[in-house]
Amino acid sequence: MNTTIPWVAVVDDDDPVRQAIVRLLDLAGIGTRGFAGGAEFLDFLSVSKPACVVLDVHMPDMSGFEVQTRLTQDSPHTQIIFITGNDSLDTHRCAMLARPIAYLKKPMSAKFLIDAIKLALIEVTRQDVSLAHRQTPT
Length: 138
Prior knowledge:
17% strand; alpha/beta; 5 helices; 5 strands; single chain
């Protein structure tokens, strides 16, 4: 995978779910890399930063919220799509505080996921253009 173009990280400790999402996005022509946990994903940020991360909320090594907190510091323009198989009002409330592009419940609609990722990629492009305009000398 060429990580110099926008790509999507899929962070989920559930192998079949992560693999299915990676396959779906590959078939949709979206550059993707899967990670089995938050620590593995955060370590990879020193190599390349994704435009968007599909992030499971409940993982054993590090919760999606812990990953999101670190991601905000290390890669503030990366867009987040939270996914969860254990939805609750508290989980939803915490997720919304992070202002994700989407909050999806497993099993999720492939169309909703792809639409959310496309929206995230548009947002990243918009931010890049805005930043370029601010850095252009007048």
